[in-house]
């Protein structure tokens, strides 16, 4: 861990940008308007050499990233401080070359950015991969837990944890995001002592983070919650607020996800 002190007010955010080159104007707009201290990005969909780091530096953000051509890809941005990379990728499957995991120390915190596999169609090898990936994630989170550092694991988990986290359970009943095995794997993360910050502050549900481009889902508010922020006890004790920047989903050429965020005190 770095020796940097946690600022008096700290905002951590996560945004599945669905193509960083296609959405760069929207992403820069969001960063400047909401100014998170740390922003975790998923589905950057670019190789490492194509990552637009200079554009973020112009507005004061430093970045690390783990890219992949055409799909996947994750990044961590920090306002005024360079994240120090700890790990990229998860142990357990050496043949897994997907860019889905990035871990760094920044502002005295351990921040993990994930893009969990979708798992569709299920049943099948993609769903099996999803469940194995979740088990590998749980193992790494246990290692972080054992270090007793203030930690946050943010990103697109591709899991709808509860029935009230979707506009209509029937709409996704056969989808990998809502299968009992997916929900059980997510519940095991919480059972190990991590706090679902957005779920905690929105027990009644309705805090959608994703609206499909199809069938007028955004216009009809037919969404669901799959972007999550899990906090270690050291950070959960400092949790002040959490939420979704829903309005950004309605802007021109927006991602199909809205950013999620947590606010922490020192």
UniProtKB/TrEMBL annotation:
Family of this protein: Belongs to the DNA repair enzymes AP/ExoA family.
UniProt keyword annotations, A-Z: Hydrolase, Magnesium, Metal-binding
Gene coding for it: xth
Name listed for the protein in its UniProt record: Exodeoxyribonuclease III
Enzyme Commission number, as recorded: 3.1.11.2
CDD domains per the UniProt record, alphabetical: ExoIII-like_AP-endo
Membrane-spanning segments: none
Cofactors that this protein relies on: Mg(2+)
Signal sequence bounds: none
Pfam families the UniProt entry points to: Exo_endo_phos
NCBIfam families (alphabetical): exoDNase_III, xth
GO molecular function, one term: double-stranded DNA 3'-5' DNA exonuclease activity
SUPFAM superfamilies per UniProt: DNase I-like
Record bears the keyword Magnesium: yes
């Amino acid at each position: 861990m770095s020796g940097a002190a946690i600022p008096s007010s700290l905002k951590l955010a996560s945004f599945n940008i669905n193509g960083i080159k296609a959405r760069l104007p929207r992403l820069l707009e969001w960063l400047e308007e909401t100014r998170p201290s740390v922003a975790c990005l998923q589905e950057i969909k670019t190789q490492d050499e194509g990552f637009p780091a200079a554009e973020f530096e112009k507005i004061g953000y430093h970045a690390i990233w783990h890219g992949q051509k055409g799909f996947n890809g994750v990044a961590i941005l920090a306002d005024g401080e360079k994240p120090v990379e700890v790990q990229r990728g998860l142990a357990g499957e050496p043949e897994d070359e997907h860019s889905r995991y990035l871990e760094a120390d920044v502002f005295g915190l351990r921040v993990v950015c994930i893009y969990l596999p979708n798992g569709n169609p299920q049943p099948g090898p993609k769903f099996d991969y999803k469940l194995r990936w979740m088990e590998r994630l749980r193992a790494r989170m246990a290692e972080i837990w054992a270090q007793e550092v203030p930690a946050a694991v943010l990103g697109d988990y591709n899991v709808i944890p509860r029935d009230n986290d979707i506009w209509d359970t029937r709409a996704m009943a056969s989808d990998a995001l809502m299968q009992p095995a997916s929900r059980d794997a997510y519940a095991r993360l919480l059972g190990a002592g991590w706090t679902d910050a957005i779920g905690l502050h929105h027990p009644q549900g309705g805090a959608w983070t994703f609206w499909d481009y199809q069938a007028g889902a955004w216009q009809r508010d037919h969404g669901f919650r799959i972007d999550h922020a899990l906090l270690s006890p050291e950070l959960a004790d400092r949790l002040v607020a959490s939420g979704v920047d829903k309005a950004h989903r309605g802007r021109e050429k927006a991602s199909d996800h809205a950013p999620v965020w947590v606010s922490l005190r020192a």
